[in-house]
Design goal:
Mean pLDDT: 93
Low-confidence stretches: 4-8
Largest sheet: none
Radius of gyration: 20 Å
Number of helices: 10
Shape: globular
Helix content: over 70%
Order of helices and strands: HHHHHHHHHH
Distance between the termini: 16 Å
Length: 248
């Protein structure tokens, strides 16, 4: 059965592959920064061989789902862009306030992303690197919202807040803390101001996209991942196979 709405809805094989590939593509950029912080590969190289191709693939799958008429899936892409952009703007308002007014962070994460993506560690940031850094920063924001919708579907806004808190916690225990000089949970820089700023920024992010998804009429009512699992389980059910044989 093709993509349908309702509690018993199933997905076509094409829709399943599209969702799975889009989730994998959406996971690339957020993980690339962490991977580069381990020293495995520079973010500049990862940008060329992983981040840029993943973004192109994700956008291509968005276009394909729209052409195929899979409204629930294409709506997931659209809402991820809207929620991700507005959520990241909300996060940046908090982050910039903490960074500029309270010295709560050692530097600008988007600027750091830009410097590493353009391989300008020695020269420092410029307009091009800042632009690319912010583009990657917003890409991460969109990616996390896409994964949220695919995993959870429509939820109350505060679930987005909890999701944001989870992202903030992982961020503050990741290898990224070493290259920023902040240390675990920012204890090497600003033991209170750093984690408070990071958590408040991600709470603003989660609350913003969470409210948007709660209110939007086109938000999938159910987890797309659970629908995939139910579709696969149904296809493997002997009763389903016998029914398909009987029909032919």
């Amino acid at each position: 059965m093709s993509e349908t709405n309702g509690p018993s809805a199933t997905l076509s094989a094409g829709a399943i592959v599209t969702i799975a590939l889009a989730m994998m593509a959406a996971s690339v950029s957020p993980n690339a920064f962490v991977l580069s912080a381990t020293g495995f590969m520079t973010l500049h190289k990862l940008g060329e061989i992983a981040i840029l191709p993943a973004v192109v693939i994700w956008l291509g799958l968005f276009a394909f789902s729209s052409i195929a008429g899979w409204r629930e899936i294409s709506s997931t892409f659209k809402l991820a862009i809207i929620g991700g952009v507005l959520g990241t703007i909300a996060m940046e308002i908090v982050r910039i306030t903490g960074f500029r007014l309270f010295d709560a962070m050692p530097g600008s994460i988007p600027m750091l992303l830009g410097v590493q993506l353009t391989d300008r560690a020695m020269q420092g940031p410029d307009l091009v690197s800042d632009t690319i850094g912010y583009m990657d920063h917003f890409t991460n924001g969109i990616s996390f919202v896409f994964l949220y919708i695919a995993l959870f579907g429509r939820q109350r806004w505060f679930v987005g807040v909890l999701y944001g808190i989870g992202i903030a916690t992982v961020f503050m225990v990741s290898p990224v803390m070493s290259i920023t000089g902040a240390g675990l949970f920012g204890q090497a820089f600003a033991p209170i101001k750093f984690p408070v700023t990071v958590y408040l920024a991600h709470i603003a992010y989660g609350a913003t996209f969470g409210f948007i998804l709660q209110q939007a009429a086109s938000t999938p009512e159910r987890s797309l991942v659970l629908t995939i699992l139910k579709t696969i389980a149904g296809a493997l059910d002997p009763r389903h196979r016998n029914h398909m044989i009987a029909r032919h």
